[in-house]
Design brief:
By secondary structure, this protein is of the alpha+beta class. The protein is built from eleven helices and ten strands. A hairpin with a 2-residue loop joins strand 2 and strand 3. Helix 1 crosses helix 3.
Length: 388
């Protein structure tokens, strides 16, 4: 970002190109796919062919050579056009970042090019039913057996596993000296023996489905381990900061979509004295408030992405959490205001806002709840005592 708080011309051009492509699909396509059990495959592959999915991946591995700020801008624009791609948070952002920073040269050559062009979709498995937001309590374990690793455990609320060819599984290995468990990441093919999934029925209608995973003596080769088995938590957070940045951008895009709908309706809907309802402060002020909140949230994810791209992981983590929080808040506020502006029309299928009210809640509860973000800011940013 420049001192004028405007994005570079290249990113503005990127946004325009994404807006044009995503606009060909839009909300109607997404809702049709969700109702019919279809996927976003056509749009996903077209985004990949145009280089939009891999803008954050190095050029030598088939990417655009940009950064997380570029990828987040792509996702924001797609969401603002009514066609958010949830798996962008997972495959190029989380998995692509971890492999880029922690993988071997052979792993980068194998996995990054197809992630960049969209032909390989890699899911991410960290959440467990009994661990929640506490990654220290993960119980999925990996045990070395000769030239292989054997994985056992369960994961829940894992997105897009039915579309993915592999999943980057967060597990734990045993330290032979201390007996303590250490985090480790493995690329597991979704067709591996012992790997099964069960879909979780969600009230939120979306093409991307959620799953519980079961790993029963799943064997993977030694080269499936991404990073060092003694590398520690930093390898995990190489992907979690991008996840929060992308979550903030996704929420901002959804908020922009809802805001645009509210503004258009407020300008054209007439009830009293031939004046559009947007002339009344009771309608105009809530919409204006959303506009202010959206600009604040967008600046936060842009700063977080700039810090991440500059290699400042500590500061990036602080702002990525705040960006995710702010994005979740404005997304919920914007969809609520948009529905209220539309009155009864806001709950109809025609206007496409009611389902967004449920989807917007995702920004408040996943991948980490807003309460845990407040805990993080209180402790790390303000120096207050740890509360949990």
């Amino acid at each position: 970002m420049s001192t004028m708080f405007t994005e570079p011309e290249e990113r503005q051009a990127l946004r325009e190109a994404v807006r044009k492509l995503a606009g060909k699909y839009g909300r109607e396509f997404v809702e049709k796919q969700a109702r019919s059990g279809g996927k976003m495959t056509d749009m996903w592959l077209e985004m990949g062919r145009n280089g939009f999915l891999g803008v954050n991946i190095a050029e030598e591995y088939g990417g655009g050579g940009g950064g997380m700020a570029d990828l987040a801008a792509v996702l924001e624009e797609a969401a603002a056009a009514g066609a958010p791609l949830l798996m962008m948070v997972v495959s190029p952002a989380i998995c692509g970042s971890i492999i880029s920073r922690c993988g071997t040269e052979e792993q980068k050559k194998q996995w990054l090019p197809p992630i960049a062009d969209g032909t390989l979709l890699m899911a991410f498995g960290i959440t467990e039913a009994d661990a929640g937001s506490n990654s220290h309590q993960i119980t999925t374990t990996a045990t070395r057996d000769g030239d292989e690793w054997v994985l056992n455990g369960q994961k829940t609320f894992i997105s897009g596993v039915d579309e993915a060819q592999s999943v980057l599984i967060v597990s734990r290995t045993a330290d032979e000296k201390t007996g303590k468990l250490k985090p480790a990441l493995f690329v597991v093919p979704t067709d591996a023996p012992g790997f099964t999934k069960t879909q979780i029925e969600m009230q939120w209608a979306a093409p991307e489905k959620q799953f519980t995973l079961f790993l029963d003596d799943v064997r993977v080769p030694a080269e499936a381990l991404v990073g060092d088995e003694d590398g520690g938590l930093w390898q995990l957070f190489a992907g979690l900061n991008p996840e929060r940045i992308m979550g903030g951008a996704l929420s901002c895009g959804m908020a922009q979509f809802a805001l645009d709908k509210a503004v258009d309706y407020a300008k054209t809907r007439t009830v009293w004295k031939d004046q559009p309802i947007g002339a009344h402060q009771g309608i105009a002020h809530p919409i204006a408030k959303v506009k202010i909140e959206l600009e604040q949230a967008r600046l936060l994810w842009q700063k977080a992405a700039a810090l991440y791209d500059a290699g400042d992981d500590m500061a990036a983590g602080e702002y990525a959490n705040m960006a995710k929080y702010a994005g979740g808040e404005v997304s919920c506020n914007a969809t609520d205001v948009a529905v209220h502006t539309h009155g009864g029309n806001g709950l109809t299928v025609e206007y496409g806002l009611a389902n967004m009210m449920v989807a917007a809640r995702l920004g408040r509860i996943a991948p980490v709840s807003r309460e845990m973000i407040l805990n993080f800011v209180a402790m790390h940013s303000l120096g207050l005592p740890k509360s949990y």
